[in-house]
């Protein structure tokens, strides 16, 4: 795996190897091995963080590797419907208009369902693209097809970005729910 294509699995392996080297150095009293092991473990943790780095912009996700993907339109529209629905529900509650409040509640729930459908679509597409890209890249590497390998590595990176975008959204929602508890 190239340095600019960090991998979660590789970071776990490197972290475990570093921890083992550190422990062995500690047991044998070899401070050089201990320091090398700690450095390897620290580097692996940075690679793991980079592997999960994503930036959300309206309607898209950009990963730490530079891959960018568009969100399924249902995610964006669902989020918008939730926002408008919540505003209607709040306004209806403030002015005492039960029908506006109920319409807002319905729109909010419909938006949640719509966003979930988009997330499922992006998650499935991301996982499929990631798997196809990984397998395709391995096959083209064996055959020496550099252009094909680059294509499949890009496919894997985009799939990973799609998947991470959904994970990012779900984590943000979970954090918001925790704050409201």
TrEMBL record:
This is CsbD-like domain-containing protein. Belongs to the UPF0337 (CsbD) family. It comes from Stachybotrys elegans. Residues 22-181 are annotated as: Disordered. Signal peptide: none annotated. Residues 74-122 form the CsbD-like domain. Residues 39-51, 99-108, 144-181 have a biased composition (Basic and acidic residues). Transmembrane segments: none annotated. It comes from the Eukaryota. Residues 22-33, 76-85 have a biased composition (Polar residues). InterPro entries: CsbD, YjbJ_sf.
